[in-house]
Structure formats: structure tokens, C-alpha cells
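Please, structure for the following, as C-alpha cells.
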Amino acid sequence: MPSSNAPSSQKPTALTAKQCSHPQCKTFIDTLNSVGVVCSTCNHKYCLKHRIPEDHDCSKVIPLGARQKTIGSSQADKARSALGRLKLWGKERQAAVLPKPKPSTAASRAVALNQLKRSAKGDAKVPVEKRIYLHVEAEANTTTSKLPKGEFFYNKAWSIGRLLDDAARGLQVQNVNNRGGGEEERLRVFHVEGGRLLEFSEKAEDVLAQGNTIVLLRGVGPVAAEA
């Protein structure tokens, strides 16, 4: 239930006056004639006319002291749906890539890796012995890329954040991670075989293996702690 503060006995001036938080309301509040009411949901203060949540569109207001929510529920739903599909895909891939007691399995993996090495693109300055070869894809529902997927190599000593920057350039995906902004615009890296989002600070050599697949997706939120 909204709570009210006691009105001030002073007449508001151009320097001290407070207006109702409703963007279209010009009413001065916390005066002898107009009590200010704090909404317990969004923590903004309103005049009596706009004190009810329905009267100030509370569901669309960013609460004071809270992080900005993603722009539009449809975008957030897309991101959550994409992450859910990737996690399911990851579980399927995990079963597919687990070592099997067949002599041909290791050989077939070696052949696939050699093919990947021949087709992969990357910075020629990275020493061969420090390269990690990966399949990289851009998740179609949350990102727009000129190249949907590709084969690349990176320096295995790089952090996931740096690898992501290079991967985004390789697929020509817009990357604003280094410009600040909200989580709805931030790119994240999903490791298919590991079935999880990777931290920007993690080292590629610690969490990825040769021939793995990573997917770039946007707006899925920070990495959640494992339950």
C-alpha cells in the first residue's frame, strides 16, 4: 500500500520544489496544499491524483535503486527461450561428444579437427601451438550477423571476453559490450558442449577444448550460479 510523507511547511521555490514523478504531471508535492505519496512498488513519489500504481503505469516504471530492466518483455522472452534451446542442444551435444569405447571414435574426431584446422580463420600472429580451433555460431533470434556461423582459431590464453570480441568481428555481429549499457544489448558466449554461459573472465584454455562449439547470443543476462 502506498505510504505518504508529512508535507513541508515551506512554500516550494524554483530551487526547492519537487514535482510529481508522473512525466506529464506538473503538480508540486510535499507542500501544505499537496501531499506527496511514495509508491511502495517503484519507490517514486507522486501527487494524490497519481498515487495509485494503475494511475502512473507502475509496471513500466523503473524502480528507484533497481537496475534497468530489459526493453520490452518480448525481447527478454526471446533471450530466455534462446538460452533454453541452447542448453537442450548442449545436453544433446554432450552425449554426442563423450568418448566412446570404439577405436574409430578418436580417429574420426582427429579427422574432424584436422578439417577444422584447414578451414579455420584467425590472426596469423597467434602461434600454432597456442591456437584453439572452434566452431562459432550466432544465435538467430537474439543477434543479427552477416555470417551465421564459421570456423575460427583463437589464442587459448585469451579470456572469454577477448575471444568474444574477436568472434563477433569474425561473424560481423554488432558488439557494444565495451561501451557500457544494459544487459539487453550485451553479448554472451554459450559453450554448447559444456551446456552453460561462460564468464568473461574465464580463460579459453580452462573451459574450452579443440573442436568445441560456442554460440553468441544477446540479452540473456549475467551468468547464473549453478544450483
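The longest strand covers residues 131-138. Residues 1-9, 68-72, 93-104 have pLDDT under 50 and may be disordered.
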